[in-house]
User: Which sequence fits this backbone?
């Protein structure tokens, strides 16, 4: 009987110590953190950006930075874009964007570097998505209406 009384008296203390140890293991350094920071897309190294100068060829840019994520052609001029997105991802799969950086390399008609630019989220603007539908030819009918209209 005295053992049972001592056991019930120390159980809350042991339980709280166990919970404290488990929560202490969930720190960022242990790998069990609830959020994880990672980079999506291209990782833009600062030393590679410093190597790109006006007048260099597109082939040299491809050697230094790699293939671009996307390209754009404006008449005779071309732009290459390298996009880096840093996100926080929770253990439950939800992601939130911490920062986004776009490195743009502009080429002239001779495929030589004309200019470079670095854009961040502050340089962009928010675009509202239009929720209206474009009307289509004909009517939207349900399955039952389609069957009844065939009779």
Assistant:
């Amino acid at each position: 009987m005295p053992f049972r009384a001592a056991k019930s008296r120390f159980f809350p203390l042991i339980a709280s110590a166990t919970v404290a140890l488990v929560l202490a293991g969930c720190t960022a350094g242990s790998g069990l953190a609830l959020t994880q920071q990672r980079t999506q897309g291209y990782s833009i190294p600062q030393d590679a950006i410093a190597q790109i100068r006006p007048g260099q060829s597109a082939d040299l840019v491809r050697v230094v930075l790699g293939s671009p994520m996307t390209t754009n052609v404006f008449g005779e001029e071309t732009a290459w874009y390298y996009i880096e997105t840093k996100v926080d991802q929770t253990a439950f799969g939800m992601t939130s964007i911490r920062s986004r950086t776009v490195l743009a390399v502009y080429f002239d008609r001779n495929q030589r570097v004309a200019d470079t630019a670095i854009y961040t989220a502050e340089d962009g603007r928010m675009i509202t998505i239009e929720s209206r539908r474009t009307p289509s030819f004909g009517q939207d009918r349900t399955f039952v209406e389609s069957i009844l209209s065939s009779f």
Summary: The radius of gyration is 29 Å. Residues 2-24 form the longest helix (23 residues). The mean pLDDT is 78. Helices lie at 2-24, 46-51, 58-65, 143-149.
